[in-house]
Amino acid sequence: MRINRVFEALSHPVRRQILALLKAGPMSAGELAEHFDLTKPTLSAHFNKLREAELVAVERRGTSLIYHLNMSILEEALGDLLSTRDQAP
């Protein structure tokens, strides 16, 4: 279920910080990495979790990966959460 993947991805503070950085606009993996004291494999795992949840989109520009925030997935997950709450007994 997509909503579960979204909230699982949002459960880690590093991933939330990545999303906050991407609110300003697309950034390369290298630019994002400058904001964290994490190993490349650890940061890559966080990027993958965000991609699996479709919270970020990625495009390749030459040798760089450029990450974009996908706000529509966040909005959809919040809408799903609120509609689920309305259905509760």
Keywords:
single chain, about 90 residues, alpha+beta, Arc Repressor Mutant, subunit A, three-stranded antiparallel β-sheet, about 15% strand, globular
Structural notes for this entry:
β2 (56-61) and β3 form a beta hairpin. α1 (2-10) packs antiparallel against α4 and α1 crosses α5 (71-87). The two termini are 21 Å apart. The chain has a single domain (2-87), classed as Orthogonal Bundle (Arc Repressor Mutant, subunit A). It has helices at residues 2-10, 13-22, 29-33, 40-52, 71-87, and strands at 27-28, 56-61, 64-69. The mean pLDDT is 90. A three-stranded antiparallel β-sheet has the order 1-3-2. The protein has 89 residues and is an alpha+beta fold. It contains five helices and three strands, in the order ααβααββα.
Report the end-to-end length measured between terminal Cα atoms: 21 Å
- In spatial order, strands of the major sheet run 1-3-2
Q: Note the beta-strand portion.
A: 15-25%
Low-confidence stretches: none
Give the biggest sheet.
3 strands, antiparallel
**How many strands?**
3
Organism: Ensifer adhaerens (Sinorhizobium morelense)
GO molecular function, one term: DNA binding
Domain HTH arsR-type: 1-89
InterPro entries: ArsR-like_HTH, HTH_ArsR_DNA-bd_dom, HTH_MetalResp_TranReg, SdpR-like_repress, WH-like_DNA-bd_sf, WH_DNA-bd_sf
